[in-house]
Design goal:
Layout lengths: L1 H15 L1 H39 L3 E6 L19 H9 L5 E16 L2 E10 L2 H5 L4 E4 L4 H5 L4 E4 L1 H8 L8 E4 L2 E9 L4 E2 L2 E2 L3 E5 H8 L6 E6 L5 H13 L7 E5 H44 L1 H9 L4 H34 L9 H27 L3 H6 L2
Length: 397
């Protein structure tokens, strides 16, 4: 009964000062909502990347420039790019029975324009197998073919955003687009792919690999994707690819990763980034906790006579301490609950523009953190209230 009575008194105190309680909990609300939103964006990005890798299948290995460490110390490579078309052609000639496809890939940011309108976009040079590997289809028009690539034809497939920005309400298929002042013909528009982690996937243009090679004037490639006959042949394929590359490069010049290894490294980096952003948002929780502590100290001063009266009729110091500590925790939990609800609503609203996902652990983390803030910042005011002498408290004006 004592606990129930203490809880009732704490709730009554919060109810009497509605506006002050709401303003006090505001810092907690903002902090929790920010944590939920940031984690939902990071989690959505991780899910999107995982789904893209799943489309490639488990019989895929990636050749990337530089030495990438896999595991807890994983991170980006620390060397210049030495992957070239010549290396890709060597792999193609010596692939044997283990390798079914070798696909080099070029990607860079360029300026795309049409009739006075221009936009910074991502250009990707690839082979036609890229569309099949990632299950990418066109909404209008067609994708480029192997013949387009062999002939280095100046044809392009554009994303929805780029098409809308440069051509507005017109159908761009059959029209021209300028890429770094070189004229290409648009032959297709990609199906919408959405916005992930603030990156607009539809703001892109894809052109045949050889056309990209001519356009950029470089012999370098960003990566090489190698398809194997089956998942069981991955170890042998990695060894074969490694032997071919070591004839020209050193071991520090390239990394050969399986789908699982590369995905694990990317998700690990994204996980650290998500937690870092969540930690920055958590600073507002600390600010909110300071606000709770400040208001509770004011409340102790205002209710000094009440505390003295309760002690005079038999209330123990631990009863007073419990009352004020529970009051602080209630304020924090109310703020946490409202913050979680706002975070969910914000995540749903953002999902129209950015892929989001709110994991269950994020809700428990935010709720637990807000509870902890209430306990930590409510202890000092509660102890001060519990230590008041009854006579002194009753004499307080």
């Amino acid at each position: 009964m004592e606990i129930i009575e203490t809880l009732r008194l704490a709730l009554e105190a919060v109810r009497i000062n509605k506006l002050r309680s709401a303003l006090t909990a505001l810092g907690i609300i903002i902090g929790v909502a920010a944590i939920i939103l940031l984690i939902s964006i990071g989690s959505g990005l991780q899910k999107y990347i995982s789904s893209q890798f799943e489309k490639l299948g488990t019989n895929t290995i990636f050749i990337l420039p530089g030495k990438i460490q896999v595991g807890p110390q994983g991170g980006p490579p620390r060397t210049v790019n030495k992957l070239t078309f010549r290396l890709s052609e060597k792999l193609e000639k010596e692939k044997g029975d283990l390798i079914t496809d070798v696909s080099p890939f070029i990607e860079l940011n360029i300026t795309a324009s049409n009739r006075g309108k221009s936009k910074i976009t991502t250009m990707a040079g690839t082979r036609s197998s890229y569309f099949a590997n990632l299950d990418i289809k066109t909404e209008t028009g067609r994708i480029f073919t192997d013949n387009d690539n062999k002939a280095s034809r100046k044809v392009a497939v554009v994303g929805q955003t780029l098409a809308n920005d440069l051509y507005q309400n017109q159908n761009p298929v059959g029209k021209t687009i300028s890429l770094s002042n070189k004229t290409f013909t648009v032959i297709g528009i990609l199906e919408p792919q959405g916005n992930v982690g603030g990156i607009d996937i539809d703001n892109q243009v894809l052109i045949p690999l050889n056309s990209a090679r001519v356009l950029t004037g470089t012999d370098q490639v960003n990566s090489i994707l190698v398809k194997t006959a089956s998942q069981e042949t991955l170890p042998q394929t990695k060894e074969q690819v490694k032997k071919i590359l070591l004839r020209t490069l050193s071991e520090d010049d390239f990394s050969i990763l399986t789908q699982e290894q590369l995905l694990s490294t990317i998700l690990q980096i994204l996980g650290v980034l998500t937690f870092a952003l969540g930690g920055i948002a958590a600073i507002s929780l600390i600010v909110g906790g300071v606000g709770i502590s400040n208001i509770m100290l004011v409340s102790v001063t205002e209710r000094t006579r009440e505390i003295g009266l309760r002690k005079a009729v038999g209330a123990r110091p631990k009863d007073i301490l419990s009352q004020f500590l529970i009051e602080a925790v209630i304020l924090s939990l109310l703020g946490g609950t409202v913050g979680i609800l706002l975070g969910f609503v914000g995540s749903i609203a953002l999902s129209r523009f950015v892929q989001t996902s709110v994991p269950v652990w994020a809700v428990f983390l935010a709720f637990g953190f807000s509870s902890l803030v209430g306990i930590i910042f409510g202890v000092a005011p509660a102890i001060r209230a519990a230590r008041l002498e009854p006579i002194v408290a009753l004499r307080h004006e």
